[in-house]
Amino acid sequence: MKQLIFLIFLINYSLAYEFKLNKKDLTYIDNSSRKSFILNRLTKYENMKSEIKDYELIKKLSYVNTFMNKTFSANDTSTQSTIDHWATPKEFLLQGHGDCEDYAIAKYFTLLEIGIPKEKLYFAVVDIKGEKNSHMVLLYVEDKKSTPLVLDNLSFLVIPFTKRPNLIPRFAFNEIDSYKFTPENFTEKVKINWGKENKWEKLLFRVYTLNE
Questions:
Q1: Fewer CB in a 10 Å sphere around the end CB: N or C, the chain?
Q2: Distance of alpha carbon 39 from alpha carbon 59, whole angstroms
Q3: CA 44, CA 96: separation in Å to the nearest integer?
Q4: Strands (E), 43-201
């Protein structure tokens, strides 16, 4: 079992991501009452990726963050039959709305597609001061000793974590590993207890294997 899990890890780590519509997606678009809006959004998305391909790092991060943040937010219960559904990038862009996890996921895979290395991007679960529910953002980390940059659906600014005092770090993860971290840097590796359902592993399978 351990060897199988390790093999799946190696396969996922080596796979490149490409946003590519399949027959199911095209049928969804054709049957949607919002077809013109979806096609317009997808055209802008492809143009954005092409435009920023050769931009410097901070401009790439900022453009992707801003583009995704223009998509309207929505609670999972209003869009999916299961609570806390993690949408794939295609689901997010076709439906045109999502929650904080969906924004972070769409940004992550978009940045992979335009050449940002996987080892520099981390999903971060944080608490927001004064709020009861946890929140998810995407981090860009040049190295584990550097201050992470935050891509957040609650802000159009891509700035260091140290300049977001309302965010309280819990843990960060990607396809490679997971860490505890402070606003200044990553500290120690941790193992995440996903409970009954590993939403992250399930999402990776749907993206890389099923092309959903």
A1: N
A2: 25
A3: 13
A4: 72-73, 97-98, 121-128, 134-140, 149-152, 155-160, 167-173, 178-181, 186-189
* Per-residue pLDDT reduced to its tens digit, 137-186: 999 999 999 999 999 999 999 999 999 999 999 999 999 999 999 999 99
Q: Taking 50 as the threshold, does the pLDDT of residue 123 lie above it?
A: yes
CB 97 within 8 A of CB 73: yes
What does the alpha-carbon distance between residue 174 and residue 193 come to, in Å, rounded to a whole number? 14
* Beta pairing partners, 126: 135, 169
Question: pLDDT-derived band of residue 16, with 50, 70 and 90 as boundaries?
Answer: confident
